[in-house]
Amino acid sequence: MKNIKFLLFIMSLLFFLNVIFSNCSFATIYIIKDQEGKNICITNQEKLISKYEKLGYVIWILEAGELFQKSLEPDSILKEPQLQLKPESIDSRPQTKGVLPLTTEPMPALETNIDREKMIETFKTNALIEWSNNFEMINYEVKMQTEAYDWVIKQTEYPDIIERARQEWVNDYVMVKYEYEIESEAYNWFNQQKAYLEILKKAEQEWGVDYVMVKYEYEQQVSAYDWLERNKDKNPEAFKRARKKWGNDYVMVKYEYEKEI
User: Fold this and answer.
1) What global pTM score does this model have?
2) Which helix (H) or strand (E) holds 68?
3) Burial of 22 (0-12, 13-18, 19+ CB in 10 A)
4) In terms of CB atoms within 10 Å, which end of the chain has fewer, N or C?
5) Parent domain of 105
């Protein structure tokens, strides 16, 4: 009888210890590193690990006093059950050091590779913040930002416009590219204008190097000026009052004058 009681005690003790150690959240520690080996964070939340894996971070595990690197599981990379479409990867070629498909082809110029890789890591981080676990949109965002970045760094014609666009949009290279395209187009238009130079000069004084707004202001003022020239004789006194009040702001002169004719 004593032996049976002792055996039951041992079995209960083993079961109790197994429950404790199998449920302790602090039993396993995860260390997240980037591709350069720099520590990103340390956590015991296993549910976060899959997100970091999908973005190409390297996972180290500290468990039972042993430190080892977590092996990648190809089936889990950029693949979520709730998505009906397979996420598009930027580059399907084999990667090294556990880099996931959220990468692009390396540029030929070696001196730009480091900056480019850092920017791609920034794009991944920003996309994760914006799209959470929507990995299809994360892939798409990183692809678009990387393509825009590659385009922007090749532009040499208007460095001042590029710099202003970068200052405004920082790491959003899709918007940097868009800003550069519309501003450089407006700048070229600005340099080709030969008529209504006083209006053009006034628009430049008001908007400076924002050539999109210079162009818009010029076109609005020229349109109002031409209308006034065609219609000022309908009520000369009203035209004089509006012109005296608003001077050479022809948009406001037209607005004021129209109320009296």
Assistant:
1) 0.56
2) strand 66-69
3) exposed
4) N
5) 6-154
Same domain, 149 and 207: no
**What's the structural domain count of the chain?**
2
Residues 149 and 219 in one domain: no
Are residue 144 and residue 197 in the same domain, yes or no? no
Is there a domain that residue 136 lies in?
A: yes
Are 142 and 73 members of one domain? yes
Only one residue has tokens 């005296």, namely: 244
SS3 content of the chain, % helix, strand, coil (to 5): 60, 10, 30
Same domain, 207 and 141: no
Local confidence pLDDT in tens for the 261 residues of the chain: 544 554 455 455 444 444 444 444 445 766 766 666 766 666 666 766 666 665 667 777 766 666 677 765 444 433 333 333 344 443 433 333 333 333 334 434 434 578 999 999 999 999 999 998 899 999 999 999 999 999 999 999 999 999 999 999 999 999 999 999 999 999 999 999 999 999 999 999 999 999 999 999 999 999 999 999 999 999 999 999 999 999 999 999 999 999 988
For residue 10, the SS3 value is helix
Q: Can you say how many angstroms the Cα of residue 245 is from the centroid of all Cα atoms in its chain?
A: 46
Burial of 9 (0-12, 13-18, 19+ CB in 10 A): exposed
Residue tagged 């390297």 (tokens): 58
* 150 and 198 housed in the same domain: no
